[in-house]
Amino acid sequence: PSDAVVLAASPDQTTLYAGLRNGEVRQWPRDGRDSRVVTRHDSAVRSLAVTDTAIASSGRDGVRVFAPPDAKEPSLKLDRPVGAMRWTAEGLVVGLERQLFLVNAKADGWSGHLDDVTALASTRSWPLVSGSADGTVRAWSQGRPVGRLSGFASGIAALAADPRWPGGPELFVATGGRTLEAWHWPADGRAPVLPQ
Fold it and tell me: What pLDDT, in 10s, does the model give residues 8-28?
C-alpha cells in the first residue's frame, strides 16, 4: 500500500499488516483475499507489533491490542502513544520516550537511553534490542541493558533482524542520516556501511 507508514508480517508469514497515514491498520491475507480494517487511529499509525495470537498498534491516540488478531474490539487500550513496540516471550514491550516498558507487568521502566526509543528488534544473540534518537543501540536482558553500540552519526531510525538467517548479520541498523549498517553483534565490531 502506497500510504503505508509501518508494516509487519505475522510470524507464520500468512498475513501482512500495514499502518497507514490515515490512521487505519489493515490486514492482508497471503491468499490474496481483500484486506480488512483492524482498527482506526485518529492520526498516522506510529508502530505495529504482531504475533500469531495478537496485534498491537499505536497512533497519536494511544496503543490498541487485539487478541486474537481478528477480534472486533481491542482487548487492551493504553492512552499514551509509543514510537516502538515488539512482542517478546515476556509480553509486549513498548518504547515510551526514553524508557522501555513491559505491558501488563508492574510499571518498572527500563532506563538506558538518553533520548526517545525509536525502534525494537530481536536477534539470535539478544532477545530484545532497542535503538534510540540518541544514536545508540542497546541489548536488554531481564529489564537491564547488557550491551551497547554507539558512534552512529545520527539517531537510529529502524532496526531489523531475522534470528533464523544462518550466517547472516545479527542486526541491521538504519539511521536518520540515511545509512544502513550490518552488524555481527556481539561477535565483532563495526561492519561496513551498505550502499544506499
Answer: 888 888 888 999 999 999 998
